[in-house]
Amino acid sequence: MHTTHWGGPGEDYRLKKISSVNIDVVSGISGPAPDDAAPVWQTPKARHSFPWFEVIMTTVGTIGLLSMVIFWLSPASSGVASLVKTTLLAAVPLLIVVSFILFIDRWEPEPWKTKVALFLWGAGVATLSSGILNTALKENIILSIGDLQQSNALGATFIAPLVEETLKGLGVLIVVVVRRTNINSLIDGVVYAGFSACGFMFAEDILYFIRVDNPEAGGVLLTFVLRGLFSPFVHAMATSMTGIGLALALLKFKRGWSKTGIVLVFWFFAMVIHFAWNGTSAFLFRYFFLLYAVIGVPAFIVWAVALIIMSRKEAEKIRVGLVPYVRTGWFIPGEVTMATDRRARRAALKWARSGGREAKRAMRSFLINLASLGMDQRLMAKNGPDPARIEADRQMLAEAVDNRREFLRLTSIAEQQQDVTDAVSRLAQAH
């Protein structure tokens, strides 16, 4: 039988290193050397794995989304064909923004169930609540000044940024409080904020497109171009500021007043971005394209490039954070490379696919766990130990060991089956 060195030249070394010396058959892990620079791992405690938080957030968001469909997007009032068409149009900018967010989240991706829960929060809770509050406050402005057009412009410029950025950011705040061990970098804050913003953008785009999708109003194509193609990232850019502020408060600041202060500063930045876009559209539309080219496009480029650079630096942070694990024999350099190099990761997943879907799933989980362990270790090396993170990392380390054992077992079975098939084929040809 031939041997596949999936992990590079160090595979044989790793197999010996993690044999009976380091892996206990019952518990899955054992304690590393006394001089270990990483946390001292104990047998993981049993934990409840049911994602109650995500289920509650998803349920609340879904109820909000259904309420909006029933009361604002009712097929009886808008037409089923119009609802389907505008939903498909709204899916275009959604795919653009989500693709970018997933790209910067590629090294240590956040759990899908949490990202989906935040998306539904943005689409259901934030959009529905914003619609109610914006309408109520705009009615007060109309009663005060008596000018409908001017009231709409003032509401869009001054009320909408405050209300919408607060409600979108509130979902991210809840995640930071309840799932704080999930967040170990500024990129994580941006990702969660981005999904909340994507949900809001998706629902709001459908509302806007339906509003102009009739012969009298017209302009659905123009609205789609302006919202879907010219400005798909406005909501994500704005809310990402709140996400960065919340991540900074969690990871960099110790005192309560400083945490609150940094969140308020970046929340203000979120509102400024939203205010600038809405104010330009409402009061300076004749100069819209000039301001878009001079200010909007450069601002987006700076934002996107900054996030891409931050994302690339995550790979280096993961490599540094995994050094203690390599030193103590938990992982080998080849595995670290698989977690931090795009080509190596693709090769590892392709190799695991030979063992079937479960082997590939185990390999993907293994790489994600490695990345999370590296980021947490790098963070705690700078900020000191965090009991909650240490406990979460114990679970991830145990899961990584199980993942490795699983994909090695499945790929070994597949390899043996292939060898038997090849041997039978050779015998058949010989006879």
Spans where pLDDT lies below 50 across 5 or more residues:
1-46
Q: Give the number of domains.
A: 2
**Element pattern in H and E:** HHHHHHHHHHHHHHHH
- Principal-axes geometry comes out as globular
**Structural class by secondary-structure content:** mainly alpha
Rounded radius of gyration (Å): 26 Å
Structure description:
The protein has 431 residues and is an all-alpha fold. It has two domains: 53-312, no CATH class; 330-425, no CATH class. The chain has helices at 11-17, 52-71, 75-78, 80-104, 112-145, 148-178, 186-211, 220-230, 234-251, 256-283, 288-321, 323-327, 333-340, 342-352, 357-383, 387-430. Helix 6 runs antiparallel to helix 10 (256-283) and helix 14 (342-352) packs antiparallel against helix 15. Mean pLDDT is 85; it is low at 1-46. The chain crosses the membrane at residues 52-74, 86-104, 116-133, 153-178, 190-210, 230-251, 260-277, 289-309. InterPro entries: PrsW (IPR026898). This is PrsW family intramembrane metalloprotease.
